[in-house]
Structure formats: structure tokens, C-alpha cells
Write a structure and sequence with these properties.
This protein has 243 residues and is an alpha+beta fold. The strands form three sheets. A seven-stranded mixed beta sheet has the order 5-6-11-7-10-9-8, sandwiched between helices. α1 packs across α2 and α2 crosses α3. The N and C termini lie far apart (45 Å). The chain binds zinc ion. Zinc ion binds next to α1.
Length: 243
């Protein structure tokens, strides 16, 4: 079978992650299980315990999955959860609070983020059925293959968090919500108390993303959502008040 990334005929892995395990780390209980809440129009709210993360068979060869994506995941995990020396500052613009992170490896972190969007797009799993990059799927595939993160204006990802609230509801993995037009594609993933909002590019309506998404200097700003906004976001994703 052909690997969807490199295109080589190879023995494909039986378990490839779409969203890497480490992104659920706040969600796993001591037995390495997590609570999954999925909501969409076709089926009602389900709350089920799964053994581990979301896997898919027969999409990637071991070189692409273990070496290429594995290397990016190791870096991203250390960047987000510790293991790399970074400068972290909390600040505020008007009433909007943020965490500014400096010292990131732009190429590795950006490629990691793009790889998550791309994997969700090529996935056949029902939970990712609305993620479809269209013509951008091939463009991002080429970038991943060539280790080309592109400029910070291309495929930026803004990260929002509500992990700082005590009464939050972390154990949620929701079906990503996507919005497509000819001009812009926006796809939002809610993963373990963080919201990852992907854009195909920065335009006049999304100018603010420039200040949030990682830039070529290795700086990004994670937006700390207010309690009110967090509640609205969770409500939008799972259709119920959880906060
Ligand atoms: Zn491959």
C-alpha cells in the first residue's frame, strides 16, 4: 500500500495517530484512558471511555510516522509541556490576557501544527469527517515532505487556552469545526482545554492572527480565554453547559 505522505509502496502502520497522544496528556486517567465527548448532527452526545488516543490504520509508513512526525511531536511536546528552555511571559492587551512564548524553533513547531491539520484532513475517521483541506492538502503534504514551514502568513495557527481556569472541563475532544470558502479555510480543534484555530492564510479579517501564531522569530502568543468565552466555546463544541 502507498504511504499517504511519502507516496512510497511500503508496509503501513496499523496504528497512526491523527492527534498525537501527548496533546491529550491532561485528559488521560491513571490507566491511560480518556473520556471522549463527540457531538455532531448525526449522533447524539456520546461519552465513552476509550483505551487510548485516536488511531488509524494503513495511512503512513513507519519512516513518515515514527521518524518524521515522531520527531516533530517530540519537539512540540517538550515545547508545550516542558523539556526545552523557553522564555514565557504573561501579559495583557486591554482585557485580553495572553502567554507569550519565545525561543521556539519556528520550523519544527510550525511543521508540527501543519501536520496535525493535514493528518485530520487525510483521515477517514468519522470524527474528522468535516476536515477537508482540498487543494491545500497537497500543498501542505509537499511542505511536510520538504521540511518547509513556509512563511508565518501561510497556514498560521492561533492557540487559545482555558487550562488556567480552575473550574474548567478538560476532558473533551470534540469534532473539529471547519469553515470553508474560496478565499479562506478555517478549522478549529478543541483538544484538552486548548483551542487550535488553523487558517490557510492571513487576510484583512484575520490580521490579528499575525500576533498570535508562531512567527519566524520563534515567538507565539497563546490567548488565555476569559471564563465567559471558555464557556461559550465549550458550549459551541459540545452543545451543553459544562463550565
Ligand atoms: Zn511514508
Amino acid at each position: 500500500m502507498k504511504c499517504k505522505l511519502c507516496g512510497n509502496e511500503a508496509k503501513l502502520l496499523k496504528k497512526s495517530h491523527i492527534i498525537p497522544d501527548f496533546m491529550y496528556q491532561d485528559l488521560f486517567d491513571e490507566k491511560h484512558r480518556y473520556y471522549e465527548v463527540i457531538v455532531n448532527k448525526e449522533y447524539p452526545l456520546r461519552n465513552k471511555l476509550r483505551q487510548s488516543g485516536v488511531y488509524e490504520p494503513d495511512i503512513l509508513c513507519s519512516i513518515c510516522d515514527n521518524e518524521k512526525f515522531g520527531g516533530l511531536e517530540t519537539y512540540a511536546s517538550q515545547a508545550l509541556y516542558g523539556g526545552i528552555k523557553l522564555t514565557i511571559e504573561n501579559g495583557a492587551i486591554n482585557s485580553s490576557k495572553y502567554t507569550r512564548i519565545k525561543g521556539l524553533d519556528y520550523s519544527k513547531f510550525k511543521l508540527f501544527l501543519m501536520s496535525v491539520w493535514w493528518r485530520a484532513s487525510i483521515s477517514n475517521l468519522p470524527v474528522f469527517q468535516h476536515v477537508n483541506l482540498g487543494k491545500h492538502e497537497q500543498i501542505i503534504r509537499d511542505k511536510l515532505l520538504n521540511n518547509d514551514p513556509g512563511s508565518s502568513e501561510e497556514y498560521p495557527c492561533a492557540i487559545f487556552t482555558y487550562l488556567h481556569h480552575d473550574n474548567n472541563y478538560h476532558p473533551i475532544i470534540a469534532e473539529p469545526k471547519c469553515n470553508y470558502s474560496d478565499q479562506q479555510q478555517i478549522c478549529t480543534f478543541l483538544i484538552g482545554g486548548n483551542l487550535f484555530v488553523f487558517y490557510t492564510h492571513i487576510d484583512e479579517k484575520t490580521e490579528w492572527v499575525r500576533h498570535s501564531a508562531i512567527n519566524e522569530d520563534g515567538v507565539m502568543q497563546i490567548v488565555q480565554m476569559s471564563e465567559n468565552l471558555s464557556a461559550k466555546v465549550v458550549n459551541k463544541f459540545v452543545g451543553m453547559d459544562l463550565l
